[in-house]
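Field log, afternoon session.

UNIT: design team B
ACTIVITY: writing a sequence onto a fixed backbone
BACKBONE:
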């Protein structure tokens, strides 16, 4: 969140500097010579009135006009002709003029303004005005234009930046609040924060993380709901068989109870096997920890040796390069491959080998297991991998969880499980895994 802090910090100071700068610029514009001459009540029409009075009534009337302006507005005036010579005495005291000439650029207690005016008769006059600073400031305060304008500029700039900053903060937070509400009501959609996730700032990073978390939680919730529905359906059959066996054992004779006891043990073993597979499926939603390097050839050889030690008499053909490695979770990958291998051994006819091949490209790693069994009808292929789904008419025992576990393991590694009938006969299951680092699971 450090970039966000500096963004807020810089925005605040930028707004403040802009407001101060515009205020100073505005006050400087208001204090310019042309603006003061055009707005000051003692100067805005003095040149025109004096030229008209001087040309029509003479020097005495023009001098009287300047005296009236000095008494009314404290404006001291000198008038020069085109050659720079004074046309009359004016209202500026000679001693003050000498002081101004002697001090040069030193600060003076008045503001000096000049105006060149051309009368209707074609004569040009140069007016030199001097206004005491205190009188000029008093007029500016009374006018109230420059402080009001400066204040309005400051308020406008700060309001604009505050509005933009508030929208920058509140809009993402509002979207996140709505997303949290949807997530709490299990109505979260993965595109809820799609626009916010496109931003390249901490809010965008938070939205992307929230999208991943929300999608993962929704998948877990949907998976758990489906698991509960399937579990309630699948447990009815073994429980019904157990009740029947118990009822028969209560009515059976002594010599028949041994067979019924064996049947009860068998049903209990099947129920235990079903529960174990359900637990294995449920554990896939937990955090498996950080990904590790996996030596694929060693893992496949270990699975083949375990299969040969069991009752399987089907030959195995393994084709895997010794240098194939990937990043992932060995326990999950072993569980997926073990289920696929057991499934292939269960349906492959005696004497026909099960082929296990691993091929690596630039982007994907393909691990395929093919049997030479009867395959699967085309209409049931899309449903393979669903929990508790079994193709109708199978004689082999099972609960329809092996392919579901393999599919979930592949998805945890960022890949997928491809199931199809082989063109030359039999069935082939392929794990397509990414070569790069798999996505880290989101803890739910």
């Amino acid at each position: 969140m450090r970039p966000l802090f500096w963004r807020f910090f810089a925005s605040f100071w930028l707004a403040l500097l802009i407001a101060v700068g515009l205020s100073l610029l505005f006050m400087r514009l208001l204090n310019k010579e042309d603006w003061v001459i055009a707005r000051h009540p003692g100067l805005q029409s003095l040149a025109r009135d004096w030229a008209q009075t001087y040309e029509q009534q003479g020097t005495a009337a023009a001098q009287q006009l300047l005296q009236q302006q000095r008494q009314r507005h404290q404006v001291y005036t000198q008038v020069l002709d085109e050659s720079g010579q004074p046309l009359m005495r004016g209202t500026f005291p000679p001693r003050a003029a000498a002081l101004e000439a002697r001090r040069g650029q030193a600060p003076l207690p008045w503001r000096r303004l000049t105006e060149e005016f051309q009368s209707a008769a074609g004569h040009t006059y140069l007016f030199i005005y001097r206004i005491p600073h205190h009188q000029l400031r008093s007029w500016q305060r009374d006018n109230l234009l420059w402080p009001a304008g400066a204040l309005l500029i400051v308020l406008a700039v700060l309001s604009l930046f505050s509005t933009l900053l508030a929208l920058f903060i509140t809009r993402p937070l509002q979207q996140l609040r709505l997303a949290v509400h949807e997530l709490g009501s299990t109505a979260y959609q993965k595109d809820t924060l799609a626009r916010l996730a496109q931003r390249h700032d901490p809010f965008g990073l938070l939205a992307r993380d929230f999208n991943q978390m929300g999608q993962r939680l929704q998948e877990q919730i949907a998976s758990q709901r489906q698991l509960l529905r399937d579990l309630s359906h699948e447990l009815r059959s073994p429980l019904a068989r157990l009740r029947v066996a118990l009822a028969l054992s209560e009515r059976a004779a002594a010599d028949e109870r041994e067979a019924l006891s064996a049947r009860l043990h068998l049903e209990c073993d099947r129920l235990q096997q079903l529960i174990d597979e359900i637990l294995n499926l449920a554990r896939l939603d937990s955090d498996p920890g950080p990904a590790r390097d996996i030596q694929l050839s060693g893992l496949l050889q270990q699975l083949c040796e375990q299969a040969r030690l069991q009752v399987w008499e089907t030959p195995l053909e393994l084709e895997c390069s010794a240098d194939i490695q990937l990043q992932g979770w060995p326990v999950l990958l072993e569980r997926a491959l073990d289920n696929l291998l057991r499934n292939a051994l269960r349906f492959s006819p005696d004497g026909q080998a099960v082929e296990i091949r691993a091929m690596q490209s630039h982007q994907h790693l393909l691990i395929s297991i093919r049997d030479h069994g009867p395959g699967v009808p085309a209409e049931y292929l899309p449903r393979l991998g669903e929990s508790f789904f079994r193709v109708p008419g199978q004689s082999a025992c099972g609960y329809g969880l092996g392919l579901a576990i393999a599919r979930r393991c592949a998805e945890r590694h960022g890949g997928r499980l491809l199931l199809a009938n082989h063109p030359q006969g039999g069935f082939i299951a392929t794990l397509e895994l990414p070569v790069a680092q798999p996505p880290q699971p989101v803890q739910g």
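LOG NOTE: The chain has 14 helices and ten strands.
NEXT ACTIVITY: expression trials, pending approval
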